[in-house]
Amino acid sequence: LSYNWFLFGLLGAVSIALIAAMPNGWQRSGLTLAQNGPGVRSASFVAFAVCALLTWMATQNIFGDPSFRWEPVLYNAFAVGPVEELFFRGVVFALVLEAFGARKTILGAEMNWGMIPAALVFGFAHATSTPAGAEIVFNTYLILWTTLGGFVLAWMRQASGSLLLPYVVHV
After folding, report:
1. 8, 13, 35, 114 — which has fewest CB within 10 A?
2. How far is 22 from 34, CA to CA, in rounded Å?
3. pLDDT by residue (tens digit) across 70-113?
4. Helices (DSSP H) in 39-80: which residue ranges?
């Protein structure tokens, strides 16, 4: 295996420990399969549209490509996606949502200014990339896209009341 599965397993365990340590952590983090948030219909529609677009984009170049490998796909689905959702939407977003107090309803989801630093933390966590095994590169474009993605995933988390939709979109 060429990916660091152990590291993401460890980060997932730490995220679950942090959620368990928070008072009422399972509910606050959205670690539930129940989709009972006030904006679940809107969030489901957005999730479907984003998944359709990203799936179309991803499949444009992989079929028939002899260099295609399944490990990156599986790594994102079973390591990166779940762990990042647990940590960024389950821990970081849950804490900043409470820290920033007053909330405003945006398309069925109670949000506040805490969404901005949470999305920025998510974006800057993706600040570097390693194209084709080359040296590590600071990637401004990636930061912008993942910060925008952080906003959308945080909104989905609040609108649906669960991490399930953000996880599906993230994969």
Report:
1. 13
2. 20
3. 788 788 888 888 899 999 999 998 899 889 987 888 888 888 88
4. 40-59, 71-75
